[in-house]
Design goal:
This protein has about 325 residues and is mainly alpha-helical. Helix content is about 65%, strand content about 5%. A three-stranded antiparallel β-sheet has the order 1-2-3, with no helix packed on it. The longest helix is centred in the middle third of the chain and has 37 residues.
Amino acid sequence: MGMWAPHPETTVDPAVGPGLLVEGGTTGTLEGPEVAVKPRSMFRRGWEVFAENRLALVGLGFIVFVFLFSFVGPLIYKTQQNLVSLNDAYCTPSAQHLLGCDQLGYDIVGRLMVGGQNSLTVGIAAAFVACLFGSIYGAVSGFAGGVVDTILMRFVDAMLSIPFIFVLIILAVLIHPSRITMIGFIAVTYWPGPARLVRGETLSLRTREYVAAVKVAGGSSRRAVLRHVMPNAIGTIIVQATFAVADAIIILASLGFIGFGIQEPQTDWGAMLSNGLNYLSLGYWWMIYPAGLIIIATVVAFNFVGDALRDAFETRLQRR
C-alpha cells in the first residue's frame, strides 16, 4: 500500500490533513468535510429555471424567428410594397409568390414582413414607454405613501375604469394614425397597469433595511427610489414588460381590424386580417389565415416567455 502524495491541484492543510484545493481556494478534506463549490450566479440560476420551461424556449425561438422574418426577410425575399400591381391581384400561392397576392397585387409574404415591422416596433416601443412611466409613477406613489399615494392611485383607478378601446378609437379619429401616434396611444392607455403592479412591489421594498439606511444617512427620496427601489423591482418590471408587448400587439391588431390602425401603404397584421375577411368566402384563404396565425403565435410566444421569466425571478426558485 503506497503513500498518498499530493496531486499538483491539491494542497495539504496542516489543521485538517490532506485536502483538495477547489475553486476559490477553499480547502476540503478527502474524507469528512464536503468540497466547497463556488455558488452559481443569479443570472445563471435564473437561466436554468427559464430553460426548464420548454414552451418558453419554443416561444423565444419563435420570437427570434419573427424578428428575423420581419426585419431581415425583406433583404432576402424582395417584394414591391409601394406600387399596386393589378396583374398579380388575387394570384394563388406559387414559386414566385409563396403565399399569393392580395386584391392590389401585394405579395402576402412581403405584406406580412411589413406588418411585422410595424406590429413589433409599435408593440415593443409602446410597452417600453408604458412600463417605464408606469414603473416610475408606481414607485413614487408607493414610496411616498399617505395622502400622495392615495391621490395618485385614485387617478390610476379612474384610468383603469375607462374602456381603453373607446379612448383609442377616439384618438385615432382625431389624430391621423401612424407608427409614432399608435405608440403614444397605446402607452397612454396601458401605463396604469404597470403603475399599480410596481406600487405594490414598492410598498414591500420600502420597509427593507437598505432603504431605511438611505433615509438615516440623509439620502433623498429620489435617490432611494431610483437607486434602490426600482433596481430591486426590475424582475417585476421585466416580466410585466414582456406581457405588455403581447398586449400592445393585440391592441394594434384590434385597431387595425376595425380600420383605425396604421394606414396604407403601410399595414399591420390586424389590418391584413380585416382585409382578408372580405375575401374569405371567395376562397382566397391566403389573405386571412397567415396574418391570423402569426398574430396568435407571436402573442402566445411572448406570454410563454413572460411566464418563464416570472418563474425565473421568483425568490424561492432563485435560491433552490
